[in-house]
Amino acid sequence: MASKQRYVVASVDLDKSRDARLHAARDLLSGERIEVELRRWDGRPAQVLVVGTETSASRMAVDTALRSGVPVVRIGRLPWDPDSVRSLDLYAEADELSACLRERIRAAEPPAEPTASAAPDIDLASAPFLRQLLAASESGACLLERGLFRLAIDPAGARLHMLRRMPYPDLIAEALAPNWFVTPLTPRRYAEEFEQDVTASYPLESVLWDIALAHDAPIADVAPDRAVRLRAWPLLSANALPAHWLLPLSCLLERAWALPQLAQATATPALELERLYAAVLASGLADGADIAAAPSPRRAPDAQAPGLLRRLARRFGLNLGRGP
């Protein structure tokens, strides 16, 4: 007789009724020779996470589970993040729950045979927080939540509002993480429910540049043959930018360059220019940008920086005369 398969199913924020149905589902799976150990979520490895009432604890648990490749099942009235969380009706019976658990644990990596592919790759460019920033000009105001972070995006004013006192560097560090919870806001709802809670505000453009500077991965897709021209100097001080970005930025401010040609002319590694081009595109500072981007205030281009840097470039023998 074949031995039973053993799995761990963790749970968080289940009331007595949902917890009882989870135990009944466990018993049904036992009859199918699928042995399930139930325990409260504590961050330890599990094959499935089951969540109930939506609280800060369950949000943090879902975030941690999905980043670790753990499937999540929610028992509740309304769907919750349907792209990554399987939702069951609040009154789902034990047999429906057991079928859902069976499906999820069979899709998960068995605990006895771990492999390097257990954790899925995360597509940074599709993380909800960043996607909302890039699409802010079209999606309207929205509320973004992840763990203790609560933010409001105001595309009309091109600003990001912090609704809790959280360190700004922590926000930048978490910006490319998945599983930010996004809620569209009408102007009236924002004014009535959230505006009074704003603790700090930042220009969207500078936030995007700070994200680009803090992470090694480009924050937007960059076509290698696309010529880009900088519409205005980034809303950051020159001291905040890497020194090796200043010359390429000044060149882009003067005219359009394709990435390979600018890499050759400025002796800048292509990977670094890819990060820079991604920041230009994401922040909406590219002339004729063809991606949804956060709007930036109309500002006069910095006319002095490119001339100075071109003189420095000639002094050091770099050729900026060859265009794309």
Question: Would you give an account of this structure?
Answer:
It is a single chain. With 324 residues, the protein is of the alpha/beta class. It is built from twelve helices and twelve strands. It has helices at 16-31, 56-67, 94-107, 128-134, 136-139, 168-174, 187-194, 204-214, 243-254, 259-266, 270-282, 304-315; strands spanning 5-12, 34-40, 48-51, 72-75, 85-88, 142-146, 149-154, 159-162, 181-184, 200-203, 227-228, 257-258. The strands form three sheets. Strands 2-1-3-4-5 form a five-stranded parallel beta sheet, sandwiched between helices. The protein has a five-stranded antiparallel beta sheet with strand order 9-6-7-8-10. The chain has a two-stranded antiparallel ribbon with strand order 11-12. Strand 6 and strand 7 (149-154) form a beta hairpin. The longest helix has 16 residues, at 16-31.
Number of strands: 12
Label the structural class: alpha/beta
Quaternary structure:
single chain
Helix content: 25-40%
What value does the average pLDDT take?
77
Helix and strand succession?
Answer: EHEEHEEHHHEEEHEHEHEHEHHH
End-to-end separation:
70 Å
> What fraction of residues sit in β-strands?
15-25%
> Counting H and I runs of at least 4 residues, what is the number of helices?
12
Question: In this structure, how is the largest beta sheet organized?
Answer: 5 strands, parallel
The best one-word shape is: elongated
**For the CA atoms, what is the radius of gyration?**
25 Å
Give me the side-by-side strand order of the main sheet.
2-1-3-4-5
Residue stretches low in confidence (pLDDT < 50, at least 5 long) are 109-126, 289-317, 320-324
